[in-house]
Amino acid sequence: MCLGIPGEVVELHPEQPDLAKVNVSGVRRLINIGLLADDPPRPGEWVLIHVGFALSKIDQAEAAAAMEFLEGIGQAYEDEIAALRESLIELPEGTMRFVDEFRDADKAHALAARIAALCEPGRRYKFMEVCGGHTHTIYKHGLEDYLPESITLVHGPGCPVCVIPMGRVDDAIALASRPEVIMTSFGDMMRVPGSHGSFFDAKANGTDIRMVYSPLDSLKIARQNPDRRVVFMAIGFETTAPSTAMTMRRAAVEGLGNFSVFCNHVTIIPAIKAILDSPDLRLDGFIGPGHVSTVIGCRPYEFIARDYGKPVVVAGFEPLDILQSIYMLMLQLSAGRSEIENQYSRVVPWDGNVVALRAIGETMELRPYFEWRGLGFISHSALKVRPSYESMDAELLFEVPGVRVADPKACQCGEVLKGVLKPWECKVFGTACTPETPIGTCMVSPEGACAAYYNYGRMHRTRVPEATVRPATVPEADAVSEADAVSEAAR
Amino acid sequence: MIDREQQVLDRIDRARQRAPRVREERITMSHGAGGKATQTLVEAIFLGAFRNPLLEPLEDSASLLLGGARVALTTDSYVVSPLFFPGGDIGDLAVNGTVNDLSVTGATPLYLSAGFILEEGFPVADLTRIAESMRDAAAAAGVSVVTGDTKVVQRGKADGCYINTAGVGLLTRDVSLGVARARPGDAIIVSGPVGEHGVTIMLARGELDIEADVRSDTAPLNGLVAALLDAVPDVRAMRDATRGGVATILNEIARAAQVGVLVSEEHIPVGDEVRGACELLGIDPMYVACEGRLVAVVSADSASRAVEALRAHPLGTQAAVIGRVTDEQPGIVQLKTAFGGTRIVDLLVGDPLPRIC
Fold first, then answer.
1. CB B137 within 8 Å of CB B144
2. Quick check: B280 and A49 CB within 8 A?
3. How do residues B321-347 score in pLDDT, each as one tens digit?
4. Which end of chain B is more exposed for a tag (fewer CB within 10 A), N or C?
5. Closest by alpha carbon to B96, among B145, B160, B62?
6. Could you tell me the pTM of the whole model?
7. Dihedral, CA atoms, A51, A56, A60, A66, nearest 10 degrees?
8. ipTM here
């Protein structure tokens, strides 16, 4: 659900032990390695980078093991062997980039053949990929083309931008509109529509909203503008929350009095539970979120296997990762097992990142409830700034209107987020709601199921997806103009 | 294929064909980014107001008949920040950009105008440096700056220095170029690695704290274009891939000629460092601006001759065929990924934004 990039540590900062220079394809940047304080990376080791922080070390042995499995997968299929030999990747020491190696089409065909062989005749399988990053990969690489018809992938709620309710966007814009405030935000939020426009629109009206790559960049802006008050629009799941937490700690250490956080961090487990308890969806298993799990580990999913009898496989973000995790799910189902397995072991430690969890715990606490776009209020599903850090809680420092805005009537983001509707079954999909004029958040982020389907999925229609659980209403031919009117009203 | 799904998709295609309309009440940065919002703005407001047959093709420059001579005319404004960056500055950009807009329509660039909007307080030393680099770029491209204008605005009303250049060139060759001429089967060629200018500018702003040895690819393309047209006189179309990158040009081809475009991800040349920076920031190099790269459409028979001619020129050593024109899915650009999947490459709405997810 969150962009995580493998990079090689080149050198540690001579004066600041929590900084290291990493190299990504010849591009270098200082990143914060404070979240790996328990076992700091050394030069030559690889780390997974998210918003300027190293989230986990990449385990070379696990990566090699994963490759070995993939190299071997085709060998039982004689007709595949020739192709595989040609595609065997030589892996001289140190040249693995942990990206391209997991994008080999021949190996994908071999995996697909194994998956198909495990399908019981007449049985239908429905798996949810919780994470928007997986949705993105599935569409971008046309993975559905590799799967037999009896397997349906349902796109889950794991897109941090998609689940932000309109009211919070309005609140953020109200905050940002105060003359003394500079709001900092990730690029992802800029186009998310509130009830009176997006951050971009607010910016055009003179509001000072600045895009940052890392939350730490907000501190730089705060230092440069001592007479202004910098508010960071914090969004994201447990993947991103530690970066916000470390930024708050740093601000406290520096005694920066003009930095605060508008906290919109959400937690993934309550959302999965809400989906499992939803009566209109029957799933056979989960492709578990990869980068969230670098922080929370694999244990929090155990209730899914134990209480709901569904298998979970935590998966990486390359196409072969996803196919392999579907294969692992199918193996579990065919053996009648429901367990938590970790396909992404090269990045995800079973126990997660304790330092990161501690940082979250020190700076933030659970909210009693939080509204999710389309899913409604979910208990204990989001984080707020802890009282001990109240001087950095924008919700206390400023008057936040806290308006609740109902989602536009025509918008069916909720059903899409729960996987009840396919994106194209939404009444406004692609006509009133497009990436340039999004009504719902699912259309804004490239991870959103609707945007992914609009951009990538429209060409993958050779394979018939299984009809979804309830018959979708097909808009009439003249619904275009009607939908237009709706979108005008929503604006 | 489910019928219901097809109905929805057909409806989307119809919606995409509708006349453009600017929905926003105010100009946002997206309107200047070269993507969908720019296209809508230009078509709804400017084409709406100025419509005439010379403007309508919306090519990089207009082709006019003046006293028996065929003349190309173009204009472009430069507001780049920072003004000086690795590989160039606003001065050579202002010359090269206009030279390129003329060149890709087949014209020989001859004369430029230069208009300067300067902010009160702007260092004279910087202005001198900019003028000198314009002089050098003009000499390299074989053009002269023959008229100009200077305005100074109050501090805060501009960002240092803005430049507008207009250019005229002679259409001496018997060629007729235009993206609407692309035909199914044609090859699509790019003259070198993409995205270098855009990434250089993003990094040169310093806000991202990323270090990389990337340089802007800003260069005059008239020599490269001449080499290509000498070898392949029947080139169908050329565009220089500036704002919006190669992806935007491909969409312009698909739309203007009502053809499909299929390109292959692994054949698009991208430098390692550009790829690395794009990965870190979560953006797609296909949408990142170039200032010295052209996209050409040639018939399938001419493709290898065209690539050879480009590669023989110092600015085209990494030229490559990246895809072809098809008769499927008119108006839509598809990308075949290295993995074997196919996806749509749509116009971006605005600038590519750094993202976390």
1. no
2. yes
3. 999 999 988 898 999 887 777 788 888
4. N
5. B145
6. 0.84
7. -90
8. 0.81
